[in-house]
Structures are given as structure tokens and as C-alpha cells.
Amino acid sequence: MKSINRRLIVGLLALMSLPIAAQEQENSFFDGNGGTVESSMPTSIDLSERKPILYNNPRTDDIYWQTTIYRVIDLREKINFPLYFPEVAGDNRESLFTTIFRLFEAGKIKCYDYEAEREIFNDATEIKFDDFVDKYRVMVTYDIDSVSGDTIGSVINEVDIPNKEVVKYYIKEVWYFDKNNSTFNVRIMAICPKIYQMNDDGVMEGSPMFWVPFDALRPYLAQKEALLTDRNNGARETLDDLFIKRKFGSYIFKESNIRNRNLLEYNINVEEAHKEQALIKNNLINFEQDLWEY
Questions:
Q1: Is the pTM for the entire model greater than 0.85?
Q2: N or C: fewer beta carbons within 10 Å in the chain?
């Protein structure tokens, strides 16, 4: 009798679980939700809702020490591939330069003239998108009214964005010690894409394009995913994460100094410049270590 009752209870539990299983199957990813069929696996949070990692903004009076470092990010290094690829936007991803280009085109960010010795971000140094397109010979497709012959619109196709030619970036960053919180931090201040094109003499020449204040970019970079490895397509972080978590490769080409010179200007050869790079890097590490007593 007990055996029969046990079987009845098990049977009833199995019947009760059927609607739940059916509901789970109905709401599964692969069946779609609300009539929308997804094209990729969902992330932990909707991209449009992602926000930049918050900074701890110090007061001016609390900055006990600081130095400005200029770096070069070479996108030909494997660690920097997530910033360069895809060359043409796809799979819900786009490169760092394509992101910057589209934001500039839409008027969502402002870009400023590149000057080798200083960075000034104001109305006088702001560059216009149309001037930028003309300078770098970006192809623009125009829509012409068939009756009047007037231009009614224009578009720049993905393949015409000079993403493949931008293989380096300059970044300006400030390392500082906040005495209020007793923390040693770094803040990226601006970023500058560097494009390589043939000049009139047929020689490949690198040209810094413009400076973009990094904080103006961050809200948009936080909504752009980057694929970090071919082995695990689920290991995606945002472009903002790559910078804030320092997941990029770079080398130093200048530290703020009285005479405002870069490393090659006061080192006799590349080998000496490499030694100076290592010295600057070690000085940053040693400064932080020397702040504390053991």
C-alpha cells in the first residue's frame, strides 16, 4: 500500500512539473521572446543600459603629486587586436576607430586639432567633420534628387571608413597621488588616432588625426563589446573596460618635462630611448612603493 501511494505521489509531481518545463521551453533563448528572434546569445545586461566604470574624482587640493605620460598603442600587437578588429563592422561589434568616426559624424563628440607640443581643447581648435572628411579623402556617397538635381542626403559606407589605415593611437594620461584617499591612480585624458597613408611621393606616412577627450568617449565605449579571444566568444568586455582595466599594450614616448621634449629628442639612439622608457616605468612603480612603510 505504501509503495502504491509513493508511486502516485511521484506521478502527480511529474504531472505538475510539465507546465513549468513547457513554460521554460517557451521562454528559452532559442525560441525568441515577444516575437523577436535574437541573433546572438544575450549578455548579462542590455548594451544600451551599460554605464562606464565610475571614477573616484579627487579634489584639486588633494592631488599631492602628478606626472603626465604619453603612450603609443600599436594595433599590430596581438593584445591590441580587440581595438582594431573587425575591420568592417559585424557581429554586433565595430572597431575603436569606427566607433569614434560614427560618433564624430553624428555630432555626439567633439574632436580637436593635434599639436605635437600641447593639447588645447576649445572652439578655436575644434575641427569640423566635413573638413576632416576632405582632408583624409574619405569617400562620401550623395543622394541626388532625380528631378531638381539637388543633393538631398549623404552617407559614408562602412567599407569607406579608413579603419584599416589607423594602426596606432596616442594617449595622454595623468598619474597622480590622492592624499585624501591615499591612492595612486591613473586617468586617461585624451586619445588620438594615427593614420598611415601614401603621400604625394608614394611614401607611407603616419599622421596624427585629432585629439578626443577620453571622458566624452566613455559613455559610448561602455556600450560597445570587444571580442577578446577566438577560443571563447563569450569572453566579451566593453571597449571602455579594455582601457580602464589596462588591458592594452603600449609604450611610452614622452613624459612631462621642463623642456617639453619627447624621448627621441634627448636620447642619441633607439636603444637609449628604450632604457629611458624602462626608467620612467620603474620610477612610477617605485614612487608608489615608496609611499608606504613596511
A1: no
A2: C
